[in-house]
Amino acid sequence: MSDLAGKVALITGAKGGLGSFATKAFLEAGASVAGVSRSIAASDFDHPRFAAIPAELSSAKAAETALDKTVSQFGRIDAVVHLMGGWTGGSRLEDTDEATFERMLDMNLWSTFFVMRAAATRMRAQRSGRLLAIGSTAALEPQPKGGAYSVSKAALVALMRSFASELRDAGVTANVLLPATMDTPQNRAAMPGADPSRWVPPLQVADLLVFLASDAASAISGAAIPIFGAEL
User: Fold this and answer.
1) What's the pLDDT tens digit per position in 131-188?
2) How far apart are CA 103 and CA 10, in angstroms?
3) Which one is predicted more confidently, 142 or 27?
4) How far out from the chain centre does Cα 9 lie?
5) Which residue in 12, 41, 91, 174 has the fewest CB atoms around it within 10 Å?
6) What is residue 12's DSSP assignment?
7) Could you give the CA distance from residue 63 to residue 41 in angstroms, rounded to a whole number?
8) String of b and e for 133-158 (b: at least 16 CB within 10 Å)?
9) Is residue 133 within 8 Å of 82, Cβ to Cβ?
């Protein structure tokens, strides 16, 4: 386990399928964690270094407020781990309406831009930081009837690599993980006929996020790391 003692991380989607694993992994590594979710409470993670920030990151103001609360609580912010997102599919692109396409961009791209932009400003000033986001292998290998989702995740990769390029001289790294289907309770419920043994274990994704947030990963930036599990 990488050492995050003394570090402060803001984790969005902190009580979700991956978020629960990530939040626990960061706390176990020694970090203080500000957990963001629409409905989150301190009791969700009973730990002295955990603070709950109920919020939706659907606007620039909401993202700024979440980061301000984190800094107010812990004094600084060393890593932003953005796990919020969503999936909508079932239609070919030619049959996809504007509302669905916009929803995918809102959930998977705009929310990332808002929180990473707010974090980048603060991290540039302190000359250190880690920006981490979760994409999908769909950004690399779009699947039929999932085009809007794939486009939003591909744009997310470009966004994070752009942050990496612009922040390379400020001591700030930016990376994105691209997992295939993860073995979460939500995915098991949504796909009861699938074989979850072929899916990506969320704990492994969480551990990789911890490493990328650590000082040991200071040379890794601009990476888009696919995690296929047994689906390759």
Assistant:
1) 999 999 989 988 888 899 999 999 999 999 999 999 999 999 999 999 998 888 888 8
2) 24
3) 27
4) 12
5) 41
6) E
7) 18
8) bbbbbbbeebeeebbbbbbbbbbbbe
9) yes
Give the separation between CA 104 and CA 107, rounded to whole angstroms. Answer: 5
* Distance from C-alpha of 207 to C-alpha of 229, rounded to nearest angstrom: 15
State the CATH number of the domain containing residue 118. Answer: 3.40.50.720
Residue 46 domain-assigned (yes or no)? yes
User: Which tokens go with 38?
Assistant: 């629409």
Domain coverage including residue 28: 8-227
The total domain count for the chain is 1
Tokens of 230: 């047994």
Structure tokens at 74: 């812990």
pLDDT at 103 over 60: yes
User: pTM above the 0.90 mark?
Assistant: yes
Residues composing the chain: 232
- Average the pLDDT over 95-122 and give the result: 94
User: 159 and 207 in contact (C-beta within 8 Å)?
Assistant: no
Q: What phi and psi, each to the nearest 5 degrees, are found at residue 151?
A: -60, -45
Residue 66 has pLDDT above 80, yes or no: yes
**Whole-angstrom distance, CA of residue 96 vs CA of residue 67:** 35
Which residue type, as a one-letter code, is found at position 222?
G
- Convert the pLDDT of each residue in 173-222 to its tens digit: 999 999 998 888 888 888 888 888 899 999 999 999 999 999 999 999 99
Residue 2 forms part of a structural domain: no
Q: Rounded to whole angstroms, how far apart are CA atoms 156 and 141?
A: 14
Which two structure tokens, joined as six digits, stand for 20?
């629960």
DSSP string spanning 152-165? HHHHHHHHHHHHHH
